[in-house]
Amino acid sequence: MRIDVELGGTTLRTIIGSLLLVASVTGCAESGASAPASAATAQKECERSGGTWRGARCETSAGGGY
Q1: pLDDT tens-digit map of 19-58
Q2: Considering only CA atoms, which of 28, 29, 54, 26 is closest in space to residue 42?
Q3: Alpha-carbon distance 37 to 31, whole Å?
Q4: DSSP strand pairing (52-54 vs 57-59)
Q5: Are residues 43 and 33 in contact, defined by beta-carbon separation less than 8 angstroms?
Q6: Residues 58, 51: contact at Cβ < 8 Å?
Q7: Concatenated DSSP letters for 18-54?
Q8: Cα angle vertex 23, ends 22, 28, to 5°?
Q9: Alpha-carbon dihedral 11, 16, 21, 27, rounded to 10 degrees
Q10: Which one, out of 3, 9, 42, 57, has a CA that is 20 to 30 A from the CA of 18?
Q11: Could you read off the pLDDT of 3-24 as tens digits, one per residue?
Q12: How far apart are CA 56 and CA 40, in angstroms?
């Protein structure tokens, strides 16, 4: 038994293009998932050091009152 498979130029380009698209989407999904984790880590570090997390930054009081 012999099975011959012929791929035309257009079909081969479609397959390669689809694989590249899937690979790039997978890469974007991974980078998007890691961003909130780093913000959560920064927030925990801010609170651990005695600061207050506001929006996307850490506020610390100078404590230098009169």
Answers
A1: 777 777 777 666 555 556 677 888 999 999 999 988 888 9
A2: 54
A3: 11
A4: antiparallel
A5: no
A6: yes
A7: HHHHHHHHHHHHHHHHHHHHHHHHHHHHHHHTT-EEE
A8: 95
A9: 160
A10: 3
A11: 555 666 677 778 878 877 777 7
A12: 10
Handedness of CA 7, 9, 14, 16 (dihedral sign): positive
Sequence letter at residue 57:
R
Residue 57: in which H helix or E strand, if any? Answer: strand 57-59
Residue keyed to tokens 């890469």:
27
* Overall size of the chain counted in residues: 66
CB 23 within 8 A of CB 11: no
